[in-house]
Protein backbone atom coordinates (compact mmCIF):
# COMPACT_ATOMS: atom_id res chain seq x y z
CA UNK A 1 0.00 0.00 0.00
CA UNK A 2 1.31 3.44 -0.91
CA UNK A 3 0.04 6.52 0.97
CA UNK A 4 0.31 10.15 -0.05
CA UNK A 5 -0.83 12.85 2.36
CA UNK A 6 -2.37 16.00 0.89
CA UNK A 7 -1.78 18.75 3.46
CA UNK A 8 -4.54 21.34 3.24
CA UNK A 9 -5.12 22.21 6.91
CA UNK A 10 -8.65 21.20 7.95
CA UNK A 11 -9.25 19.89 4.40
CA UNK A 12 -6.26 17.49 4.46
CA UNK A 13 -6.67 13.90 3.31
CA UNK A 14 -4.78 10.81 2.24
CA UNK A 15 -4.51 9.05 -1.09
CA UNK A 16 -4.12 5.26 -0.81
CA UNK A 17 -2.88 3.19 -3.73
CA UNK A 18 -2.96 -0.60 -3.59
CA UNK A 19 -3.83 -3.48 -5.88
CA UNK A 20 -7.11 -5.04 -4.66
CA UNK A 21 -8.01 -2.03 -2.47
CA UNK A 22 -11.62 -2.08 -3.72
CA UNK A 23 -12.36 -5.11 -1.55
CA UNK A 24 -11.01 -3.32 1.54
CA UNK A 25 -12.78 -0.01 0.88
CA UNK A 26 -15.37 -0.71 3.59
CA UNK A 27 -12.73 -1.13 6.34
CA UNK A 28 -10.94 2.00 5.26
CA UNK A 29 -14.10 4.14 5.17
CA UNK A 30 -15.15 2.69 8.53
CA UNK A 31 -11.87 4.01 9.96
CA UNK A 32 -12.94 7.51 8.85
CA UNK A 33 -16.55 7.64 9.98
CA UNK A 34 -19.09 6.18 12.40
CA UNK A 35 -21.91 7.00 9.99
CA UNK A 36 -24.37 4.23 9.15
CA UNK A 37 -25.35 5.13 5.60
CA UNK A 38 -23.41 5.66 2.38
CA UNK A 39 -24.56 6.80 -1.05
CA UNK A 40 -22.42 5.34 -3.82
CA UNK A 41 -22.70 7.53 -6.92
CA UNK A 42 -21.56 5.68 -10.01
CA UNK A 43 -22.35 5.23 -13.71
CA UNK A 44 -24.03 2.31 -15.42
CA UNK A 45 -20.77 1.01 -16.84
CA UNK A 46 -18.77 0.94 -13.59
CA UNK A 47 -21.78 -0.32 -11.66
CA UNK A 48 -22.13 -3.33 -13.98
CA UNK A 49 -18.44 -4.19 -13.61
CA UNK A 50 -17.73 -3.44 -9.97
CA UNK A 51 -20.83 -2.09 -8.18
CA UNK A 52 -21.67 -5.29 -6.34
CA UNK A 53 -18.07 -5.84 -5.22
CA UNK A 54 -17.87 -2.40 -3.66
CA UNK A 55 -21.29 -2.80 -2.04
CA UNK A 56 -20.21 -6.13 -0.48
CA UNK A 57 -17.11 -4.54 0.98
CA UNK A 58 -19.11 -1.62 2.42
CA UNK A 59 -21.86 -3.83 3.82
CA UNK A 60 -19.34 -6.14 5.45
CA UNK A 61 -18.00 -3.07 7.27
CA UNK A 62 -21.52 -2.42 8.58
CA UNK A 63 -22.77 0.31 6.23
CA UNK A 64 -26.24 0.60 4.77
CA UNK A 65 -25.57 1.29 1.07
CA UNK A 66 -27.61 3.16 -1.56
CA UNK A 67 -26.27 2.73 -5.09
CA UNK A 68 -27.21 5.77 -7.21
CA UNK A 69 -26.49 4.94 -10.84
CA UNK A 70 -26.68 7.35 -13.77
CA UNK A 71 -26.04 6.54 -17.46
CA UNK A 72 -22.36 6.49 -18.49
CA UNK A 73 -21.01 9.27 -20.73
CA UNK A 74 -19.77 12.89 -20.58
CA UNK A 75 -23.16 14.07 -21.88
CA UNK A 76 -24.63 13.04 -18.52
CA UNK A 77 -22.31 15.35 -16.56
CA UNK A 78 -25.07 17.93 -16.74
CA UNK A 79 -27.60 19.86 -14.68
CA UNK A 80 -30.43 17.37 -15.20
CA UNK A 81 -28.29 14.45 -13.87
CA UNK A 82 -27.36 16.63 -10.92
CA UNK A 83 -31.02 17.33 -10.12
CA UNK A 84 -31.79 13.61 -10.39
CA UNK A 85 -28.95 12.88 -7.96
CA UNK A 86 -30.22 15.44 -5.44
CA UNK A 87 -33.62 13.74 -5.56
CA UNK A 88 -32.06 10.29 -5.11
CA UNK A 89 -29.91 11.49 -2.20
CA UNK A 90 -33.01 12.94 -0.59
CA UNK A 91 -35.07 9.77 -1.24
CA UNK A 92 -32.25 7.71 0.32
CA UNK A 93 -32.46 9.78 3.51
CA UNK A 94 -28.83 10.92 3.28
CA UNK A 95 -27.93 13.44 6.00
CA UNK A 96 -24.88 15.60 6.61
CA UNK A 97 -23.37 12.97 8.87
CA UNK A 98 -23.43 10.35 6.08
CA UNK A 99 -20.88 9.93 3.30
CA UNK A 100 -21.05 10.04 -0.49
CA UNK A 101 -18.71 7.75 -2.45
CA UNK A 102 -17.92 8.89 -6.02
CA UNK A 103 -17.05 5.62 -7.74
CA UNK A 104 -15.97 5.85 -11.38
CA UNK A 105 -14.00 7.93 -13.89
CA UNK A 106 -13.69 11.68 -14.23
CA UNK A 107 -17.36 12.26 -15.04
CA UNK A 108 -18.49 10.43 -11.90
CA UNK A 109 -15.90 12.18 -9.73
CA UNK A 110 -16.86 15.63 -11.02
CA UNK A 111 -20.63 15.12 -10.94
CA UNK A 112 -20.72 13.02 -7.75
CA UNK A 113 -18.31 15.40 -6.05
CA UNK A 114 -20.41 18.41 -7.05
CA UNK A 115 -23.56 16.71 -5.76
CA UNK A 116 -21.73 15.99 -2.48
CA UNK A 117 -20.43 19.56 -2.30
CA UNK A 118 -23.86 21.13 -2.68
CA UNK A 119 -26.49 18.71 -1.31
CA UNK A 120 -27.50 19.97 2.16
CA UNK A 121 -24.61 22.48 1.74
CA UNK A 122 -22.05 19.70 1.75
CA UNK A 123 -21.76 16.01 2.58
CA UNK A 124 -18.32 14.44 3.17
CA UNK A 125 -17.21 12.36 0.20
CA UNK A 126 -14.62 9.80 -0.85
CA UNK A 127 -13.23 9.36 -4.35
CA UNK A 128 -12.75 5.82 -5.69
CA UNK A 129 -11.48 6.49 -9.23
CA UNK A 130 -11.58 3.73 -11.84
CA UNK A 131 -9.84 5.17 -14.94
CA UNK A 132 -6.25 6.27 -15.49
CA UNK A 133 -7.12 9.95 -15.85
CA UNK A 134 -9.16 9.92 -12.66
CA UNK A 135 -6.55 7.87 -10.76
CA UNK A 136 -3.62 10.11 -11.71
CA UNK A 137 -5.34 13.46 -11.82
CA UNK A 138 -9.01 14.34 -11.44
CA UNK A 139 -9.78 12.49 -8.16
CA UNK A 140 -7.12 14.56 -6.34
CA UNK A 141 -7.40 18.28 -5.75
CA UNK A 142 -11.09 18.89 -5.22
CA UNK A 143 -12.23 20.17 -8.61
CA UNK A 144 -15.90 19.20 -8.91
CA UNK A 145 -18.53 20.38 -11.36
CA UNK A 146 -20.76 19.84 -14.35
CA UNK A 147 -20.81 20.88 -18.00
CA UNK A 148 -23.19 23.57 -19.26
CA UNK A 149 -24.44 23.84 -22.86
CA UNK A 150 -21.94 26.73 -23.22
CA UNK A 151 -18.87 24.71 -22.17
CA UNK A 152 -17.25 21.93 -20.18
CA UNK A 153 -16.88 22.29 -16.38
CA UNK A 154 -18.48 25.72 -16.42
CA UNK A 155 -20.39 25.24 -13.15
CA UNK A 156 -18.31 23.91 -10.31
CA UNK A 157 -16.32 24.47 -7.17
CA UNK A 158 -13.36 23.28 -5.13
CA UNK A 159 -14.49 20.69 -2.60
CA UNK A 160 -11.87 18.32 -1.22
CA UNK A 161 -12.66 14.63 -0.64
CA UNK A 162 -12.03 13.02 2.76
CA UNK A 163 -9.90 10.38 1.07
CA UNK A 164 -8.98 8.88 -2.29
CA UNK A 165 -8.83 5.09 -2.71
CA UNK A 166 -7.01 3.91 -5.81
CA UNK A 167 -7.06 0.27 -6.90
CA UNK A 168 -4.86 -0.04 -10.03
CA UNK A 169 -6.28 -3.51 -10.81
CA UNK A 170 -9.51 -1.78 -11.88
CA UNK A 171 -7.62 -0.56 -14.95
CA UNK A 172 -7.49 -4.12 -16.30
CA UNK A 173 -10.99 -3.83 -17.77
CA UNK A 174 -10.27 -0.56 -19.62
CA UNK A 175 -10.40 -0.81 -23.43
CA UNK A 176 -7.03 -0.12 -25.09
CA UNK A 177 -8.11 3.27 -26.41
CA UNK A 178 -8.77 4.41 -22.85
CA UNK A 179 -5.40 3.14 -21.70
CA UNK A 180 -3.90 5.36 -24.40
CA UNK A 181 -6.22 8.19 -23.41
CA UNK A 182 -4.95 8.01 -19.82
CA UNK A 183 -1.35 7.81 -20.96
CA UNK A 184 -1.73 11.30 -22.42
CA UNK A 185 -2.10 12.66 -18.87
CA UNK A 186 0.60 10.37 -17.45
CA UNK A 187 3.10 11.54 -20.09
CA UNK A 188 2.12 15.12 -19.25
CA UNK A 189 3.37 14.64 -15.65
CA UNK A 190 6.66 13.32 -17.01
CA UNK A 191 6.96 16.37 -19.25
CA UNK A 192 6.18 19.08 -16.72
CA UNK A 193 8.04 17.86 -13.62
CA UNK A 194 9.14 14.22 -13.56
CA UNK A 195 11.99 13.26 -15.88
CA UNK A 196 12.36 9.87 -14.15
CA UNK A 197 8.75 9.03 -14.94
CA UNK A 198 9.29 10.05 -18.56
CA UNK A 199 12.36 7.79 -18.73
CA UNK A 200 10.47 4.90 -17.10
CA UNK A 201 7.76 5.21 -19.77
CA UNK A 202 10.38 5.30 -22.53
CA UNK A 203 11.51 1.86 -21.36
CA UNK A 204 8.01 0.33 -21.23
CA UNK A 205 5.11 -0.17 -23.64
CA UNK A 206 1.38 -0.83 -23.62
CA UNK A 207 1.80 -4.22 -21.99
CA UNK A 208 4.75 -3.34 -19.73
CA UNK A 209 2.96 -0.52 -17.94
CA UNK A 210 0.57 -3.01 -16.32
CA UNK A 211 3.38 -4.22 -14.03
CA UNK A 212 4.17 -0.64 -13.01
CA UNK A 213 0.81 0.97 -12.37
CA UNK A 214 1.30 1.40 -8.61
CA UNK A 215 4.57 3.24 -9.18
CA UNK A 216 3.26 5.30 -12.11
CA UNK A 217 0.12 6.35 -10.24
CA UNK A 218 2.10 7.14 -7.09
CA UNK A 219 4.51 9.40 -9.01
CA UNK A 220 1.66 11.27 -10.69
CA UNK A 221 -0.34 11.64 -7.45
CA UNK A 222 2.75 12.94 -5.60
CA UNK A 223 3.16 15.64 -8.23
CA UNK A 224 -0.54 16.45 -8.13
CA UNK A 225 -0.65 16.58 -4.32
CA UNK A 226 2.40 18.84 -4.21
CA UNK A 227 0.89 21.28 -6.73
CA UNK A 228 -2.49 21.28 -4.99
CA UNK A 229 -0.84 21.98 -1.61
CA UNK A 230 1.01 24.97 -3.09
CA UNK A 231 -1.93 26.38 -5.05
CA UNK A 232 -5.24 24.83 -4.10
CA UNK A 233 -7.34 27.39 -6.00
CA UNK A 234 -5.43 27.00 -9.28
CA UNK A 235 -4.27 30.61 -9.52
CA UNK A 236 -0.55 29.94 -10.03
CA UNK A 237 1.69 26.88 -9.93
CA UNK A 238 -1.14 24.35 -10.27
CA UNK A 239 -1.82 25.72 -13.73
CA UNK A 240 1.22 23.79 -14.93
CA UNK A 241 -1.09 20.75 -15.01
CA UNK A 242 -2.72 22.40 -18.02
CA UNK A 243 0.23 21.62 -20.30
CA UNK A 244 -1.28 20.51 -23.62
CA UNK A 245 -4.79 21.35 -22.45
CA UNK A 246 -5.35 24.74 -24.10
CA UNK A 247 -4.84 23.34 -27.59
CA UNK A 248 -6.13 19.91 -26.45
CA UNK A 249 -9.52 21.26 -25.36
CA UNK A 250 -9.74 23.21 -28.62
CA UNK A 251 -9.05 20.01 -30.57
CA UNK A 252 -11.74 18.12 -28.64
CA UNK A 253 -14.26 20.94 -29.23
CA UNK A 254 -13.34 21.59 -32.85
CA UNK A 255 -14.09 17.95 -33.71
CA UNK A 256 -17.34 18.00 -31.71
CA UNK A 257 -15.97 15.99 -28.75
CA UNK A 258 -16.49 12.86 -30.86
CA UNK A 259 -13.24 12.20 -32.68
CA UNK A 260 -10.52 12.76 -30.09
CA UNK A 261 -10.65 11.67 -26.46
CA UNK A 262 -9.40 14.09 -23.80
CA UNK A 263 -6.00 12.37 -23.55
CA UNK A 264 -5.61 12.29 -27.32
CA UNK A 265 -6.38 16.02 -27.53
CA UNK A 266 -3.85 16.72 -24.76
CA UNK A 267 -1.23 14.57 -26.51
CA UNK A 268 -1.62 16.41 -29.82
CA UNK A 269 -1.74 19.72 -27.94
CA UNK A 270 1.55 19.00 -26.09
CA UNK A 271 3.24 17.92 -29.30
CA UNK A 272 2.01 20.79 -31.49
CA UNK A 273 2.85 23.46 -28.90
CA UNK A 274 6.30 22.04 -28.15
CA UNK A 275 7.07 21.98 -31.88
CA UNK A 276 6.37 25.71 -31.97
CA UNK A 277 8.19 26.67 -28.75
CA UNK A 278 11.24 24.64 -29.77
CA UNK A 279 11.32 26.46 -33.13
CA UNK A 280 11.10 29.77 -31.20
CA UNK A 281 14.08 28.81 -29.05
CA UNK A 282 12.02 28.63 -25.83
CA UNK A 283 12.41 24.85 -25.53
CA UNK A 284 15.61 22.79 -25.57
CA UNK A 285 16.47 21.34 -28.98
CA UNK A 286 15.40 17.74 -29.46
CA UNK A 287 12.54 17.91 -26.93
CA UNK A 288 9.76 17.69 -29.55
CA UNK A 289 11.23 14.62 -31.25
CA UNK A 290 11.62 12.84 -27.90
CA UNK A 291 8.10 13.74 -26.82
CA UNK A 292 6.55 12.66 -30.12
CA UNK A 293 8.38 9.32 -30.00
CA UNK A 294 6.90 8.58 -26.58
CA UNK A 295 3.39 9.67 -27.57
CA UNK A 296 3.48 7.43 -30.65
CA UNK A 297 4.73 4.54 -28.47
CA UNK A 298 1.46 4.76 -26.51
CA UNK A 299 -0.79 5.10 -29.56
CA UNK A 300 -1.36 8.85 -29.19
CA UNK A 301 -1.67 11.50 -31.93
CA UNK A 302 1.05 14.12 -32.34
CA UNK A 303 -0.92 16.41 -34.65
CA UNK A 304 -4.37 17.01 -36.13
CA UNK A 305 -5.63 18.31 -39.48
CA UNK A 306 -7.39 21.38 -38.06
CA UNK A 307 -5.65 24.69 -38.76
CA UNK A 308 -4.86 27.39 -36.21
CA UNK A 309 -7.87 29.33 -37.59
CA UNK A 310 -10.12 26.31 -36.95
CA UNK A 311 -8.86 25.85 -33.38
CA UNK A 312 -8.72 29.41 -32.04
CA UNK A 313 -12.50 29.95 -31.66
CA UNK A 314 -12.53 26.95 -29.32
CA UNK A 315 -9.87 28.50 -27.11
CA UNK A 316 -11.50 31.85 -26.45
CA UNK A 317 -14.15 30.20 -24.26
CA UNK A 318 -11.51 28.44 -22.22
CA UNK A 319 -11.38 28.83 -18.41
CA UNK A 320 -7.68 29.63 -18.70
CA UNK A 321 -8.54 32.95 -20.33
CA UNK A 322 -8.73 35.76 -17.72
CA UNK A 323 -9.92 38.95 -19.39
CA UNK A 324 -7.56 39.42 -22.30
CA UNK A 325 -4.82 37.44 -20.59
CA UNK A 326 -4.04 33.77 -20.46
CA UNK A 327 -1.31 31.48 -19.26
CA UNK A 328 0.15 28.97 -21.64
CA UNK A 329 2.20 26.09 -20.24
CA UNK A 330 5.33 25.28 -22.20
CA UNK A 331 8.36 23.04 -21.69
CA UNK A 332 11.87 24.29 -21.04
CA UNK A 333 12.91 20.68 -21.57
CA UNK A 334 11.56 17.22 -20.69
CA UNK A 335 10.78 17.23 -16.94
CA UNK A 336 10.63 21.03 -16.68
CA UNK A 337 7.47 22.94 -17.53
CA UNK A 338 6.93 26.66 -17.06
CA UNK A 339 4.10 29.19 -17.11
CA UNK A 340 4.11 31.67 -19.99
CA UNK A 341 1.69 34.61 -19.53
CA UNK A 342 0.29 35.90 -22.84
CA UNK A 343 -2.06 38.48 -24.29
CA UNK A 344 -4.86 36.75 -26.21
CA UNK A 345 -3.66 38.29 -29.52
CA UNK A 346 -0.33 36.48 -29.17
CA UNK A 347 -1.92 33.02 -29.02
CA UNK A 348 -2.19 32.25 -32.77
CA UNK A 349 1.57 32.26 -33.14
CA UNK A 350 1.79 29.32 -30.70
CA UNK A 351 -0.48 27.13 -32.82
CA UNK A 352 1.19 25.65 -35.85
CA UNK A 353 -0.78 23.91 -38.55
CA UNK A 354 1.11 20.74 -39.36
CA UNK A 355 4.01 18.61 -38.15
CA UNK A 356 6.75 18.65 -40.77
CA UNK A 357 6.84 15.23 -42.49
N1 LIG B 1 -6.83 18.61 -13.65
C1 LIG B 1 -6.08 19.76 -13.37
C2 LIG B 1 -6.22 20.26 -11.97
O1 LIG B 1 -6.80 19.59 -11.15
O2 LIG B 1 -5.76 21.31 -11.67
Automatic annotation (TrEMBL):
Pfam families: DHQ_synthase (PF01761), DHQS_C (PF24621)
Molecular function per GO: 3-dehydroquinate synthase activity
Residue ranges occupied by any 3-dehydroquinate synthase N-terminal domain in the UniProt entry: 68-179
Binding site for Zn(2+): 185, 245, 262
Keywords, in A-Z order: Amino-acid biosynthesis, Aromatic amino acid biosynthesis, Cobalt, Cytoplasm, Lyase, Metal-binding, NAD, Nucleotide-binding, Zinc
Keyword Electron transport: no
Domain 3-dehydroquinate synthase C-terminal: from-to ranges: 182-321
Binding site for NAD(+): 106-110, 130-131, 143, 152
Function: Catalyzes the conversion of 3-deoxy-D-arabino-heptulosonate 7-phosphate (DAHP) to dehydroquinate (DHQ).
Protein name: 3-dehydroquinate synthase
Organism: Megasphaera massiliensis
Gene for this chain: aroB
Amino acid sequence: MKHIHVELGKDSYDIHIENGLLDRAGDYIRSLTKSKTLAVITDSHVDALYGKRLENSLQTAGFRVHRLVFPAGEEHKCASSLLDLYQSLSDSGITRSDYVIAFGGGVVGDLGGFAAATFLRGIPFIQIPTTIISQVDSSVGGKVGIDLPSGKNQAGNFYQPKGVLIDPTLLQTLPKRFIHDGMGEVIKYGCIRDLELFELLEGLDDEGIFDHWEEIIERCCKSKADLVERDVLDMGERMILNFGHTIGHAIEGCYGFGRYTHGEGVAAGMSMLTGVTEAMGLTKEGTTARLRKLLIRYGLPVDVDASAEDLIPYISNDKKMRGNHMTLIILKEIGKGRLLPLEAEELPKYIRKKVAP
